[in-house]
Amino acid sequence: MRYIYSLIFLGIASATQAQVVPAPTLPDSAAAPAQPRREKPSFIPLPIVFSQPETGLGYGLAVLPVWRFGQDTAVRKSNARLVAWRTQKNQSLLQLTHNVFTLGEAFLLTGEASYYYKFPINYYGFGPDTRLADKSIIEYKVFIFNERVLKRVAPNVFVGGQYRLTNLRDVQLNEGIDQDPNRSRLFDRPAREYTQDTRISGIGPSFLYDGRDNVLSTYRGNYLELGALFNGRALGSDFRFSRFVVDARHFQPLGEGTRTILATQIIGQFQSGDTPFRELANLGGDKTLRGYYEGRFRDRQLLAVQAELRRHLFWRFNGVVFGGLGQVGNTVGALVQRAPKASAGAGLRFAFNRQDRLNIRLDYGRGAGSSGVYFSIGEAF
């Protein structure tokens, strides 16, 4: 399950971060060459508070360094996030994520290491027609390691490989499991998916075109990610299945010199083989179709499209409106056999780090029969 978090006490502290003191010049007519300012990432833990439908109110600590390798300003900045939090629903997480451009952008390394401890979620079953009445609460512990190593082969073009490990333990069915006919839809799955600890291990190729001007909040550029993961017993996986992912994004200012940005995204996840319930594609959450609970709809195949209009309002505040369509299904053909799920909403952004374009995000999204408020850091895409 993807998660979100936000910072609320950093606006004043970071207000001076975007200020740059000009280098002094010599008294004669020959000006001294400007000395590049060496940036020092901060590793000071900061308090965080966040909220989303999947977690309720949460709190914790975060370390959020942003830096650049070398002094070539054409190299995009790297960033990492180390967070530890707990929520009012008794969910706990320790996570490290990173997006690192090496010197000259010769390599790009992205990935995560996460440990979800006793993590209860709402489970509605699988397929595009699950009902709110199908909800049951399940709980588990899971460790996730995911790493992608890519080499630049052309400007903005990276190719390489990825490895993903998921270790799921101690699945428990807490609520909604004994009331016939409303017993948990988890019992519709093979028993070994919820009665045994499971390991998923997969490796595969990855292609990335990343022409965004900034990876944290993009004004212009294109992004295309293509990837495949092959999970099998030779890699220690308890389930054998394949996953194919496509993520295409376009960012465009609406006019010269404007701060109105149109952002669009098409995302697809397609799987074949013996896919366990937690590895199914999820619709909903803070990233895809805000307004639906993450995992409200899940199945082997997913296709979604969404758009967001971002507009500067005043001072450090920006406003957004967004909407999206998406669907899940057992087969690719099933994705177009039913009307897609729709969501829409609006939100505010507060730029607490204008130099690196790092925003606090507050969104309200609404789907069919559900809604959600998302208070987090960074853009949805």
UniProtKB/TrEMBL annotation:
Using the record's annotation, list all stretches that form the Bacterial surface antigen (D15) domain.
Answer: 178-381
Per UniProt, subcellular location reads as:
Membrane
Q: Does the keyword Membrane apply?
A: yes
- Which species? Hymenobacter taeanensis
Entry-linked Pfam families: Omp85
Question: Major place of localization?
Answer: membrane
UniProt KW keywords: Membrane, Signal
Q: What is this protein called?
A: BamA/TamA family outer membrane protein
Membrane-spanning residues:
none
One GO cellular component term of this record is: type V protein secretion system complex
